[in-house]
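User: Hi! I have a protein structure encoded as tokens and I'd like to know what sequence might fold into it. I'm fairly new to this, so please keep things simple.
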């Protein structure tokens, strides 16, 4: 039963149609991420594709998209991005499951999803920044703000988290605004082909097989 459920889970969550979307979503992420990294902007904008694919194909495909994005960014721009792969995976899962729960059907739900993703990103990224990079990564200009806070407060944890939450509120705000607008522009006849199946449907299908 467990093996059958796991096999059916993989088949439904990682369908051929869903996997085809991943290179497109990763490409969208790379454009935003590479641009911000090159210009040293205090933003990332590397999750637009992840949010889109979370809406179309579900949390696990979104998590895979986030992982692939960070792997590519670590190769083509900066190896610093590699440890942050876990952040992208977590954000893909959180966003995807909230979308499945119906939180992306209206503006209020999209705001809740944005805040949840922001908090997830800020906390996980702050821990990685502190314990792997000593408080600053040098990826963008926000590291200067973090350094200034550390010099003022002498509190590395508070300084890094404060920078991370502020940075992500703005960055993810732009990401979700763009993604929400794009999702509303996708024809229903297209998006319905990619609607992720939930656990209840899987269990019913297993009983009938």
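Assistant: Happy to help. Inverse folding works backwards from shape to sequence: for each of the 209 positions I chose a residue that suits the local structure. Here it is:
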């Amino acid at each position: 039963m467990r093996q059958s459920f796991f096999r059916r889970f993989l088949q439904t969550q990682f369908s051929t149609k869903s996997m085809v979307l991943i290179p497109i979503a990763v490409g969208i992420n790379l454009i935003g991420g590479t641009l911000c990294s090159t210009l040293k902007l205090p933003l990332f904008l590397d999750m637009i594709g992840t949010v889109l694919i979370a809406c179309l194909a579900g949390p696990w495909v979104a998590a895979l998209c986030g992982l692939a994005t960070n792997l590519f960014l670590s190769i083509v721009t900066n190896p610093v991005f590699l440890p942050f792969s876990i952040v992208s995976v977590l954000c893909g899962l959180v966003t995807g499951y909230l979308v499945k729960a119906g939180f992306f059907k209206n503006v209020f739900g999209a705001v809740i999803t944005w805040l949840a993703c922001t908090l997830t990103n800020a906390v996980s990224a702050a821990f990685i920044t502190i314990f792997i990079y000593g408080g600053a990564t040098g990826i963008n200009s926000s590291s200067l703000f973090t350094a200034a806070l550390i010099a003022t407060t002498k509190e590395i944890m508070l300084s890094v988290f404060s920078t991370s939450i502020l940075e992500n509120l703005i960055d993810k705000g732009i990401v979700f605004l763009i993604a929400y607008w794009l999702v509303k522009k996708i024809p229903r006849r297209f998006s319905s082909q990619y609607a992720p199946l939930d656990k209840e449907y899987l269990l019913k299908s297993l009983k009938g097989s």
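A useful reference point when you look it over: The chain has ten helices and no strands. Feel free to ask if any position seems puzzling.
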